[in-house]
From TrEMBL:
<dbReference type="InterPro" id="IPR000073">
    <property type="entry name" value="AB_hydrolase_1"/>
</dbReference>
<dbReference type="GO" id="GO:0016787">
    <property type="term" value="F:hydrolase activity"/>
</dbReference>
<dbReference type="Pfam" id="PF12697">
    <property type="entry name" value="Abhydrolase_6"/>
</dbReference>
<protein>
    <submittedName>
        <fullName>Alpha/beta hydrolase fold family protein</fullName>
    </submittedName>
</protein>
<feature type="domain" description="AB hydrolase-1">
    <location>
        <begin position="41"/>
        <end position="261"/>
    </location>
</feature>
<dbReference type="InterPro" id="IPR052897">
    <property type="entry name" value="Sec-Metab_Biosynth_Hydrolase"/>
</dbReference>
<dbReference type="InterPro" id="IPR029058">
    <property type="entry name" value="AB_hydrolase_fold"/>
</dbReference>
<feature type="signal peptide">
    <location>
        <begin position="1"/>
        <end position="25"/>
    </location>
</feature>
<keyword id="KW-0732">Signal</keyword>
<keyword id="KW-0378">Hydrolase</keyword>
């Protein structure tokens, strides 16, 4: 699918309602203390997911002594969401590793800028944009993505914007093919919408140019073509690139061990 076709497909699809903002980030976050040995791992989900998608990974990381914070990504626009994340991580003391899934990669690529405590970036089936690039453009740069065909009719918002959802009957096949069916069905019900504007907003952050980056993604990803992920990892001169055979777009749900291992590598790298 070309970038142009993806843009058309995205603008013409999706369903359902609201955004759940992270309630008062500053209060709980200030108690999280990163240490020299164990930096705080900040997890930022992407479109059509929510913060609970990190539960399996967070369980692994906390068991190994890492402080973990999973941020509810608003999914309203790159600049807005990156500022939201930057405010939240600014309240965390000590070193940080930022981890982004899918669209969350756009967010960490900007939110990390100007924060000397961020030591590494981990892209989990995620976009690592150059200045001036968009989600839609990167997703359509190589063939193989089928997201546009899985979207429902868009929901028009009060401000004239449009929210996108994946059709529930296509969610598992498109987004979470290697997740147990019952779990994938619940994920479809609880999916968080992203705006059309967010997917077409130009990025102005590329923190991977200054920070060590790590990539992990599945070879059966249908949202972001594997060749696009390989291209971004190579361009970023990633310190490690892990391809998980047969894993879907939400490999942090289906393969938490593999994802946690890469995050720990990034956190422990000196």
């Amino acid at each position: 699918m070309t970038a142009k076709k993806l843009l058309i497909s995205i603008a013409a699809s999706a369903s359902l309602a609201a955004v759940l903002p992270l309630a008062h980030a500053e209060a709980p976050i200030t108690s999280i203390q990163g240490t020299i040995a164990k930096p705080t791992i900040v997890l930022i989900h992407g479109a059509f997911a929510d913060s609970s998608s990190w539960d399996g990974v967070a369980k692994k990381l906390t068991a190994h002594g890492y402080p973990v914070l999973s941020i509810a990504n608003p999914l309203r626009g790159i600049a807005n969401d990156a500022q939201y994340a930057a405010n939240a991580i600014g309240a965390v003391k000590g070193p940080l590793v930022l981890v982004g899934h899918s669209y969350g990669g756009m967010v960490i690529s900007k939110a990390a800028e100007g924060n000397p405590e961020v030591k590494a970036l981990v892209y989990v089936a995620a976009f690592a944009p150059e200045q001036g690039e968009t989600v839609a453009g990167l997703a359509g740069k190589f063939p193989g993505g089928t997201l546009g065909d899985a979207l429902a009719d868009p929901v028009t918002l009060a401000d004239g914007g449009k929210d996108l959802y994946i059709r529930q009957d296509k969610f598992a096949q498109q987004f979470a093919a290697d997740v147990p069916p019952r779990q994938a069905a619940l994920m479809a019900v609880g999916q968080r919408p992203v705006t059309v504007a967010a997917l077409n907003e130009v990025s102005n952050g590329a923190a991977w140019k200054q920070l060590p980056s790590y990539f992990v993604y599945g070879t059966a990803d249908k949202n972001i073509p594997v060749e696009a992920l390989r291209f971004m990892a190579k361009r970023a001169s990633a310190k490690d690139v892990v391809e998980v055979k047969g894993a879907s777009h939400v490999l942090m749900v289906s393969r938490p061990d593999a994802v946690a291992k890469v995050i720990e590598e990034a956190a422990d790298n000196k």
